[in-house]
Design brief:
The chain is α/β, with parallel strands linked by helices. The chain has helices at residues 28-42, 52-69, 85-92, 145-155, 214-217; strands at 12-14, 45-50, 74-79, 98-103, 105-113, 116-124, 133-141, 161-169, 182-186, 192-193, 209-211. Strands 4-3-7-8-9 form a five-stranded parallel beta sheet. Strands 1-2-11-10 form a four-stranded antiparallel beta sheet. The protein has a two-stranded antiparallel ribbon with strand order 5-6.
Length: 219
């Protein structure tokens, strides 16, 4: 697997495309909450890490590789994480084979074990993936724990092939032995938003990927 490294953009913008700052003065714990809220509403200064152009170029390159690898086949794409919706949409529009999308649904079951409350979460698809070519798509790969669980769950269905694609890979946070087959970018340890990645519901609509200021990310 080869990963294209593209130099991050150094542009600074706000979530609203402006550089306004809140001038609201408050005190104590409420002051911090209010100032952070104001920053998110008015657009705190975000540092663009990957521009819209860089993202679109890289997604096109990933799509070209996938088109080559699955030429003439039906590809079943599986995703369960909310942060992949923009990536998934742009990627699938450039695929040239027959594509079937599966959105995993979580089934939650509460039970007890030796008197301790436990919650079991299982991800299921509406149809079996047995004997099919499957691609698990994710927006950000960090620890890999969830992805590893999903891969094992899909593997139990005995697909013909199973690969993974992720837009952002954070290698240093990995807790399992998992290497994605298709990677967009490798990023450092920082909180990223934009292009489907959000913070408390904010920023996911942005067409680029940016780093959130520490004072907001830590809130």
């Amino acid at each position: 697997m080869s990963t294209t490294k593209i130099a991050p953009s150094r542009q600074r913008v706000s979530a609203a495309g402006k550089t306004r700052r809140s001038r609201r003065k408050t005190q104590g714990g409420k002051a911090r909450k209010s100032s952070v809220s104001s920053a998110m509403q008015e657009g705190a200064g975000l540092r663009v890490v990957f521009s819209e152009r860089q993202i679109q170029q890289r997604v096109s390159q990933m799509a070209s590789r996938i088109n080559h690898d699955y030429h003439g086949r039906t590809l079943h794409i599986v995703t369960a994480l909310d942060n992949s919706f923009m990536f998934l949409a742009d990627l699938t529009r450039q695929l040239q084979m027959t594509v079937v999308c599966h959105f995993l649904k979580a089934r939650v079951k509460d039970r007890t074990w030796h008197g301790l409350p436990l919650r079991e979460i299982k991800y299921v698809t509406s149809t079996s993936l047995g004997g099919k070519h499957v691609l698990l798509v994710d927006g950000v790969l960090q620890t890999g724990v969830t992805e590893d669980f999903l891969l094992h769950s899909i593997q139990d269905q005995e697909p013909y092939s199973l690969r993974t694609a992720t837009l952002i890979e954070k290698v240093t946070q990995r807790k399992v032995d998992l290497t994605p087959d298709y990677v967009g970018f490798q990023a450092e340890e920082r909180f990223l938003v934009g292009y489907g990645l959000g913070l408390n519901g904010e920023y996911a609509h942005l067409p680029y990927i940016a780093e959130v200021p520490q004072e907001i990310a830590a809130f």
